[in-house]
C-alpha cells in the first residue's frame, strides 16, 4: 500500500511522461530548483515552465518505477523511461530523482536532483 507521499511522487512522475505541464507546475514551489546532473540547472517556476514547453512531445513515453523511498520532506524515485518516437525508434533511460519538499504534510517540491543515463 502506497503512502500519501509515494502516491504524490508516482503521480508527479507520471505527469512528466504524459507531458502534463499543468500537474507538474501545480506540484512545485515558485522557487523550484531542478538540477540535472551533468547538464542544466533550472531555477524558478518560470524557467521550469519554459523548459517543459520545449520538451520532446513527438515521442510516446512509458514509465517504469523500480523504487520509491520517502521520509519526511525527502524522497527518492528511480526506474526506467522508455520512449518511442514517431519513426518507431526506441530509447531507454535509467533515472534516479532526489526530491525535497517545502513541508512534510501536503508539501510541494522545492528541489529536484536528477541523474539520467541512456541505456542500450
TrEMBL record:
Matches recorded under Gene3D superfamilies: 3.10.450.50
Chain ranges of the SnoaL-like domain: 10-111
Pfam entry (one): SnoaL_2
InterPro entries to which the protein is assigned, alphabetical: NTF2-like_dom_sf (IPR032710), SnoaL-like (IPR037401)
Protein name: Nuclear transport factor 2 family protein
Species this chain originates from: Gracilibacillus dipsosauri
Amino acid at each position: 500500500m502506497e503512502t500519501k507521499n509515494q502516491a504524490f511522487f508516482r503521480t508527479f512522475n507520471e505527469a512528466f511522461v504524459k507531458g502534463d505541464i499543468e500537474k507538474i507546475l501545480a506540484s512545485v514551489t515558485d522557487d523550484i530548483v531542478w538540477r540535472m546532473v551533468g547538464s542544466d540547472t533550472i531555477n524558478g517556476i518560470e524557467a521550469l515552465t519554459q523548459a517543459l514547453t520545449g520538451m520532446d512531445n513527438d515521442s510516446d513515453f512509458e514509465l517504469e518505477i523500480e523504487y520509491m523511498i520517502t521520509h519526511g520532506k525527502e524522497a527518492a524515485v528511480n526506474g526506467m523511461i522508455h520512449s518511442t518516437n514517431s519513426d518507431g525508434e526506441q530509447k531507454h533511460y535509467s533515472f534516479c530523482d532526489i526530491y525535497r519538499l517545502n513541508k512534510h504534510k501536503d508539501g510541494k517540491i522545492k528541489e529536484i536532483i536528477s541523474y539520467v543515463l541512456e541505456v542500450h
